[in-house]
Amino acid sequence: MRKRVYRFFGGLLTAQETWLNRMADRGYRLVRTGKLLYEFAECEPGQVQYGLEFIGQKARGSAEEYRTFLEDMGYRVFYKNINLNLSVGKVRWRPWAEKSGQIATNASTFNRELLIVEKHNDGTAFQLHTTCEDRKTYYKTLRKPYLFFCSMSAVFGLLMRNWVGIGFAALFLVPLVLYQMELVRLNRQARLEE
Hints:
- The chain is α+β, with helices and mostly antiparallel strands.
- 44% of the residues lie in helices and 22% in strands.
- It contains four helices and eight strands, in the order E-H-E-E-E-H-E-E-E-E-H-H.
- The chain has a three-stranded antiparallel β-sheet, with helices on one face. A three-stranded antiparallel β-sheet has the order 4-8-5.
- The radius of gyration is 18 Å and the shape is globular.
């Protein structure tokens, strides 16, 4: 039996990952994703585990290489959007991305900013980034788009004396603060391990 669930998490990747792992613990395995859709099939409770990876900064080629690398390691991988872009034929400029990934189109990484990675539950914790330095680099990458949009919204809101721009800045501030707090925690952990 299949189960369809419609959810939107935006930039709250930890919440999305936690929810997917709860669904797996209840005996539902992901089989398909859409803009808001998560489709599950029944499985043994706790049979699989999920991890999320932000790849919105990557060019199409390096995103495909990374996906192939994960699949070669035995993982199942699904693309997922991070934004609600409900139109077709969009182009986005991503100034925080790597050089060839700064222009995102439908043919590249537009609406495919996340990878949902599934692995068979072998009883060990599932982490795509295992070293402290690797996790710090990853969270800095996650933080960049929110820092950019928060700054731009705040500047435009203040210059135009527009509360809507300041409101958007506040919305972008939530994931920005969460990722910054994780970076602070990782920096403390790195100092303790030295």
